[in-house]
């Protein structure tokens, strides 16, 4: 099988329908009315319009690796990015902290990578093929990759890295995602063959996450404080709670990349202080701008804001096992009682799109179910009366501190529930306590929360399996469980599409939760910063970024 | 003096022991599992069990406490669960930031409060007096983080005089350190100056009506001598008491101020430790800060004896 064919066949996440539109054609983002596909396109175009007009062809083209021509004017300069939290060490195999993986994309490489359109692209592997009914995967590696310590990367490093993840002593929190690997062979220095215990639909996309970074064995013991990878930047220093500094790695395998000489990630945990430092020019990029600040940033001269649908959702979770919520009619009443558009306006400053099930519109597997429960307080009251609660009831919404956007969702929802007779008390709970009591203890009635998507729909939707530890909504449906099992191992893209569409419909029909909205990612940048890309996974990729003329 | 020290020492140890015990119990009672917080919500039970064993969290609670205590007695504060580094080293790394912040704030507060308080007392009911009272009231009412944000808007955003946050170590650049600490010190020191100024004023007013002041004036001493030598020294006793207490509050206030100004100090470490249920780090920090406060109180006691020779530290 030739490499390019492999690429096309085994890119289940490719946004196949994506075609460039002229930047002028898309409608303004009036939320609520547009179809999901056009929403995605419109928003992508919003970003690409800025990028394409300003820059050369994207660095990571589907055609795979090749020399990238870059004007010399892009080279050089330093950039400071304000991050909200400090890294939890820089060893990619030993943490789940988002703050770490946001940065480590610049230090380490993975076998494959994901592009802004959710397509799987080559990284350390130039091509790959699968055979034996999806049980064997062969990856062909680049021959020009060096670690920051000067040693050349070989297939043995790939084998070592995965063995390290799987070794119980490493206590890698992600190990279970890779336990399906039963053997790793290296027929030569540039080839790695994985044997799986059973087929896994998400296997390829699982290799694109930062926690599968390829690391050199000789540096493994000190990666936490002195990371050594093969990425575009190499480590300079980490001053805890202050900053992480990286500088350009001259032997990075993509010629003339990166453009920047130096990048500093500065920890500024106070959101107001973060934005002020952007306005004063002390930092160049604030990757996560709170919804309430976006309008203000747009008006600020010298700054720009780019946005993209976020790969995740926000919901009002319902404890399906606890009366009165064990009654489908009550859950449906909640769905009719909540005006999602009002939640977006009132709690998220209009930054977000309504959803109808457990899937964001950015996903290729998304099914539009927003019409399933139109906002209809009268119908909600009727359903409540039918269920035996003509005068409503009292309940409590648990709100996770310090996530103010979830807290605000809860406040707006409580107000709306009051209109159909449900008196919802708000209870704010600190995160560690929340995890133990609400999320794992399942000791709650209603709660506002969010879920971040992965590249594959399986890890996103398998939380509703009856015996899942993370089934905090206490949902039980044998048919759903069966679908999850089938979807996880199916290698037929068409069948998988059917399965995940049906699962979304089931969740909506059973009103397992009130699926509120898909937020947008908003990045604030100094005007001169060019080439910042947004990805469906949580990474800050500095390879494509350069400083324009000031 | 030496006997005083010897007498105070057992109570010092007892205080620290009780504080460590209470901290340990509280952290155990409060929900939240450090292993879960490290591994995230998707971690399988086996991985959690493995990590708990590695961290020693699977041992019986009394054993955990005793092994921590025996470590402390041998001068070892343990290893942070989340940072994987010795607690003592983590504290030592953050200490310069917070100590600089606390002491500069204290100095600012004292240097503002003393002259303002004295002048307000001497010129009671003048415009200056009312000004000082308003300043003091504002100091009590305005939270440090809010003052901090206002200072940033003014000095960093509007005037561009100072960096809005971050920290430059003293060893790297003296001026850089001062520039990064200037606003945090103002945010923390100004409210404290207000509180102190009010106190100095009140004590001075009381002192100025005393007999010995009348005597001093009758002796023909200059007004400056009367105020500074005779009134102020006595008026300082309550001020020093409050100052000692305020140092404890300064360490608390630094948690908030360090957050606003992105200073990598002890306060941020405290917050991190609690949010992550990093027990050894919480224990170490609480013990350290408690010891610091106890030592400061001890210094305050010494200051009393100097200010008022009638107060003796020795048993009569």
Q: What does this entry look like structurally?
A:
- The complex is a heterodimer of chains A (550) and B (316).
- The model of chain A is unreliable at 1-67 (pLDDT under 50).
- Chain A contains 15 helices and 21 strands.
- The N and C termini of chain A lie far apart (49 Å).
- Chain A is 28% helix and 21% strand.
- Chain A is globular, with a radius of gyration of 24 Å.
- Chain A is of the alpha+beta class and 550 residues long.
- Chain A folds into two domains: 5-228 and 521-547, Dipeptide-binding Protein, Domain 1 (Dipeptide-binding Protein, domain 1, Alpha-Beta Complex); 312-518, Roll (Dipeptide-binding Protein, domain 3), CATH 3.10.105.10.
- In chain A, helix 8 (328-337) packs antiparallel against helix 10 (377-386).
- Chain B has 316 residues and is mainly alpha-helical.
- Chain B has a domain at 94-269 and 292-314: MetI-like fold (Orthogonal Bundle).
- Chain B contains twelve helices and no strands.
- Chain B has helices at residues 2-29, 34-39, 45-55, 61-73, 87-122, 127-141, 144-158, 174-208, 211-218, 223-260, 266-275, 279-307.
- At the A-B interface, helix 6 and helix 12 of A face helix 2, helix 3, helix 5, helix 7 and helix 11 of B.
Output mean pLDDT of chain B.
87
Helix/strand/pairing category of chain B:
mainly alpha
Q: Assembly type of the shown chains?
A: heterodimer
Strand content of chain B: under 5%
How would you characterize the largest beta sheet of chain B? Answer: none
Rounded radius of gyration of chain A (Å): 24 Å
Name the CATH superfamily assignment of the largest domain in chain A: Dipeptide-binding Protein, Domain 1
How is the main sheet of chain A built? 6 strands, mixed
